[in-house]
Design goal:
single chain, alpha/beta, Rossmann fold, six-stranded mixed sheet, four-stranded antiparallel sheet, about 30% helix, globular
Length: about 220
């Protein structure tokens, strides 16, 4: 079952520079929520706060009714995909997934299932150096998904790719989301990309102000 996310009066500063002065945000169970905003607006900081990688100065973070504010990343059941495809260079695509599954006896089957979901099963035994940038990002996405997280966080996952690949992978991410319906937060600087993948779009402005700018009529389809 998908879970919702609620941020209550989130405060975060770096030194004397405030990033969020009291951010409130609610993300619905199973939706793909896109965050737009200029550089320095706090988009990546917000993802890191959700992941537990960056502590907050005040406020609460709830996943469904569970208060995760003080929980470490490993206890939050979050998957994350970064701008750069962070894959283990000496491991095949399949082993990149298996390593995060630990000693599960069915780890090979699970790895192949999620590689197939992102259309990478034919490249399962290739090293990252033998894959294109788009293929490596597909592997990174499959690795984030194979642990079956409650929340998926995507930080500019397509920005390092050319425009044709961005369109292709945006369509794939949308299809994967419709299939799995994992509550997802997607950060991008590209309005067209946000429109292609998301159910709702919001703009993060200076000081952590948040403005909802679009809600699709097919949200959650």
């Amino acid at each position: 079952m998908s879970i919702g996310i609620r941020l209550e009066q989130i405060k975060k500063s770096y030194g004397a520079v405030p990033i969020f002065r009291g951010l409130d945000l609610e993300i619905r169970p199973g939706e793909l929520f896109a965050l737009l905003g200029p550089s320095g607006s706090g988009k990546t900081t917000l993802l890191r706060i959700l992941a537990g990688l960056t502590p907050i100065d005040g406020g609460r973070i709830l996943f469904a009714s569970r208060d995760v504010t003080a929980l470490p990343p490993a206890a939050r059941r979050v998957g994350m995909v970064f701008q750069e495809h962070v894959n283990f260079p000496t491991l095949s695509a399949r082993r990149n997934l298996e390593i995060v599954l630990g000693r599960r006896p069915d780890r090979r089957e699970i790895a192949m299932k999620y590689l197939a979901l992102v259309h990478m099963e034919a490249f399962a035994e290739r090293l990252p150096s033998e894959l294109s940038g788009g293929q490596q990002q597909r592997v990174a996405l499959a690795r984030a998904l194979c642990v079956e997280p409650d929340v998926l966080l995507l930080d500019e996952p397509l920005s390092a790719l050319d425009i044709a690949l961005r369109r292709e992978l945006a369509a794939m991410i949308r299809a994967v989301h419709r299939s799995l319906k994992i509550t997802t937060v997607y950060v991008t600087h590209d309005p067209d990309e946000a429109e292609a993948v998301s159910d709702r779009i919001a703009v993060l402005g200076e000081g952590g102000t948040l403005h909802l700018i679009a809600e699709k009529t097919d949200a959650g389809a």
